[in-house]
Amino acid sequence: MTFDAVVHVSLRPGIADPQGATIERALPALGFEGVSGVGVGKAISFRVEAADEAAARSLVEDLCHRFLTNPVIEDSSITLQPADVPVA
Amino acid sequence: MTFDAVVHVSLRPGIADPQGATIERALPALGFEGVSGVGVGKAISFRVEAADEAAARSLVEDLCHRFLTNPVIEDSSITLQPADVPVA
């Protein structure tokens, strides 16, 4: 089965986020009010081929921990759904 | 009302994604099989103060088009939900 996976990587609370802080500082000058707590993270999307959803999730979690994120400073969350593409 | 907003920014189809391509090339060497179509985008999260959901969505869309994305090469999608924080 094929699954569409998205891994959201965000900085852990307390880790400096200069990119988010810069966006937040720029907003009032552009006329945007009422926006706070800006954080910039990554969204890594890909397609996974696996026997079932549990296998796909396990592969994506392993990938997250070993390669895509730095667990010292980053949190990650995984979204997985069956790809709506007919299997040939 | 306060809303939690997440703006997902991804490269448009056909735009080169060297970061995603690099991840995809590295995976077999790490023992990960069955992963394809890797794309790396941004996830910008923040909190919006607005009268209602329509006002909040309109503000976030405006912010997207004027500031957060480059519509020539990037697509964006907006996720908005009421923040579960009691208003003081």
What does this entry look like structurally?
Two copies of one chain form a homodimer. Helices cover 28% and strands 39% of the residues of chain A. With 88 residues, chain A is α+β, with helices and mostly antiparallel strands. Chain A has a domain at 2-13 and 39-82: Phosphoribosylformylglycinamidine synthase subunit PurS (Mth169, Chain: A, 2-Layer Sandwich), CATH 3.30.1280. The first copy, chain A, is elongated and about 50 Å long. The model of chain A has no long low-confidence stretch (mean pLDDT 92). The interface between A and B is medium-sized, with 34 and 34 residues. Strand 2 of chain A pairs antiparallel with strand 2 (35-49) of chain B, so a sheet runs across the interface.
